[in-house]
């Protein structure tokens, strides 16, 4: 049904659902949910095992059943992404730049390569080799990365103001290709505005099952979260006048909300067996908490 890899789908399910139902799921339920996307038992078990080795999930036994929950690191990543994905309008800029510089030795190049991916995902842009900047308040994210990779002795972090000789806009162009990102948003809007109308009509007319809504919502989240890998989430002051990010975010939110209720019903129909559904977060607003996570490591 889909070419989305199994591990990527598991991350999506944790962020969109499992995190708000006690953060734990029986492997059998996870396998059943992923069957909707064409993933088999073997691929699910292999993917969740890999996630465990990478520190994203931890396992526990209840009788002869295996349960998996997000680790502290996994929860932190999902919460960070959730803040970004549903930010419909850019935050007001304080005029300061965050600058991270590192000198990671060659024998730790694997860590260096992973760190670069993490920085891009968090919204940093590379100004110079081993010098990354962002106008956003990312101190907490940087501290988590330093702790995760144990690189405190190799990095320096500054919060400063740019004094020229060029304008801030010139710095932005040096670090990010906003024209290309805008084109990607235009493509998303063109494709998903049409799909939204079709699916909305199907739901209104009772022609779309809860399972189908669950599948389409998950695929929508997966597609939209790709922007976390390319869009740094710049403040409005640094964006071009015809920026399409806000339009795309509004479309995503409306589409997501339309699919949310039936999709959630389907999830609960699977989850209520052999899981503690009563642990559902009563403050959980399912319409307002989609998530994205970088799982390309």
Which helices and strands occur, and which strands form pairs?
Blueprint: H1 6-16, E1 24-26, H2 27-35, H3 41-53, E2 57-62, E3 65-70, H4 72-85, E4 97-102, H5 109-122, E5 125-128, E6 131-134, H6 139-149, E7 155-160, H7 168-175, H8 178-204, H9 210-224, H10 245-271
Antiparallel strand pairs: 1-3, 2-3, 4-6, 4-7, 5-6
Helix pairs in contact: 5-6, 8-10, 9-10
Summarize the structure in words:
This protein has 297 residues and is of the alpha+beta class. It starts with 5 loop residues before the first helix and ends in a 26-residue tail after the last helix. α5 packs antiparallel against α6 and α8 (178-204) packs across α10. It has helices spanning 6-16, 27-35, 41-53, 72-85, 109-122, 139-149, 168-175, 178-204, 210-224, 245-271; strands at residues 24-26, 57-62, 65-70, 97-102, 125-128, 131-134, 155-160. The mean pLDDT is 89. It folds into two domains: 1-91 and 177-297, Orthogonal Bundle (Arc Repressor Mutant, subunit A), CATH 1.10.10.10; 97-160, Alpha-Beta Plaits (2-Layer Sandwich), CATH 3.30.70. The protein is 50% helix and 12% strand. The chain is built from ten helices and seven strands.
What's the quick description here?
It is built from ten helices and seven strands.
Which strand order do you get reading across the main beta sheet? 5-6-4-7
Please state the average pLDDT score. 89
Principal-axis shape: globular
Portion of residues in beta strands equals 5-15%
User: What's the number of domains?
Assistant: 2
> Percentage of helical residues?
40-55%
Look up the CATH topology of the largest domain: Arc Repressor Mutant, subunit A
Terminal-residue CA separation = 24 Å
CATH class of the largest domain: Mainly Alpha
Number of helices: 10
Can you tell me the CATH architecture of the largest domain? Orthogonal Bundle
Largest beta-sheet details = 4 strands, antiparallel
- Find the structural class using helix and strand composition: alpha+beta
Radius of gyration, in angstroms, nearest whole number:
20 Å
Spell out the helices and strands N to C: HEHHEEHEHEEHEHHHH
Low-pLDDT stretches: none
Tell me the name of the CATH homologous superfamily of the largest domain. Winged helix-like DNA-binding domain superfamily/Winged helix DNA-binding domain
């Amino acid at each position: 049904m889909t070419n989305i890899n199994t591990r990527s789908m598991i991350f999506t399910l944790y962020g969109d659902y499992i995190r708000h139902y006690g953060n734990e799921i029986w492997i059998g339920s996870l396998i059943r949910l992923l069957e909707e996307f064409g993933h088999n038992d073997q691929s699910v078990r292999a993917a969740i095992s890999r996630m465990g080795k990478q520190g994203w999930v931890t396992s526990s036994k209840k009788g002869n059943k295996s349960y998996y929950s997000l680790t502290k690191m996994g929860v932190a990543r999902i919460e960070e992404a959730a803040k970004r994905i549903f930010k419909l309008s850019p935050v007001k800029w304080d005029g300061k730049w965050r600058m991270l510089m590192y000198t990671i030795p060659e024998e730790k190049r694997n860590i260096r390569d992973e760190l670069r991916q993490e920085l891009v995902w968090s919204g940093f842009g590379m100004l110079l080799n081993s010098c990354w900047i962002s106008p956003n308040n990312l101190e907490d994210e940087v501290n988590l990365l330093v702790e995760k990779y144990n690189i405190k002795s190799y990095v320096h972090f500054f919060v400063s103001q740019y004094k020229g000789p060029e304008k801030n806009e010139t710095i932005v162009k040096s670090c990010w290709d906003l024209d290309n990102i805008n084109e990607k948003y235009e493509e998303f809007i063109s494709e998903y505005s049409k799909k939204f109308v079709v699916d909305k009509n199907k739901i209104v007319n009772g022609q779309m099952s809860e399972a189908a809504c669950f599948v389409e919502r998950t695929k929508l989240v997966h597609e939209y979260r790709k922007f976390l890998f390319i869009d740094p989430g710049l403040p409005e002051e640094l964006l071009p006048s015809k920026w399409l990010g806000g339009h795309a975010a509004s479309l995503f939110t409306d589409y997501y909300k339309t699919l949310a209720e039936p999709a959630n019903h389907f999830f609960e129909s699977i989850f209520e067996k052999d899981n503690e559904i009563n642990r559902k977060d009563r403050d959980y607003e399912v319409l307002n908490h989609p998530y994205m996570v970088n799982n390309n490591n």
